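A common beginner's mistake is to predict each chain separately and then try to dock the pieces by hand. The better habit, illustrated here, is to supply every component at once so that their relative placement is modeled jointly.
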Amino acid sequence: MIDFAKDVRLWFAPSRLKDEGDTPDYRFSLANERTFLAWIRTALALVGGGFAVDQFLPDLRWGVRVGMAFALLAVGAACALRAVNHWVRCERAMRRHEDLPLSRFPVVLSLGVGLVAVAMVVVVLLGWTSGR
Amino acid sequence: MSGPGTDRDAGLQPERTRLAWRRTTLASSVVAVLALRQALRGSGSSTEVAGAAVIVLIWLVFLWVAHRRIRALATGRPPGLAPRSALAVVGCTVALAVFAMAVIL
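With all components supplied together, the output reads:
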């Protein structure tokens, strides 16, 4: 938790990031940047999915629809925050010549997305829609 | 093979990064359109217009950050991404999610 607070401070203090170690090959930094952007796109897709569930599935019951939308939006926001945190940690690790940080997040995210997909199948199969 | 004064990376890393920014702005535009659609579903009250204005503002911030970064990447050996830009992009994404939650409720 204290480590996390330190990471958050690094988000806002770019000069402190530059104080760490020495500048890595710029191509490594660019690769790190692209990974960050890929995670941002994942986050945007999840947020867009949240909007889509609310707008394009009006037949779902209110609770199911809002629950699904909120789950997707919350995961999207978490994904974006985690993206910047991971980017900062990778950048720092490269500067210090340490191993890149490992993360449980991809597994958690894939399990979450799989769960939402299965839930949608169940919802459709059981016909939990309000009906037209 | 390379222009004067530039040492072009054979792996085209700056170009790939620039395209990654383009893809990301494209994704953010799609989400912004969905958000606008959500905001302007009703009768067009002043609250709805204000919500739409906020979304357009978020989208413009996103575009501006991406545009600046894309221009910086056009140089032969680009500087690293500024944490402030990374935070701005993340802030826009989270803001869209929060907006969605507020509207849905």
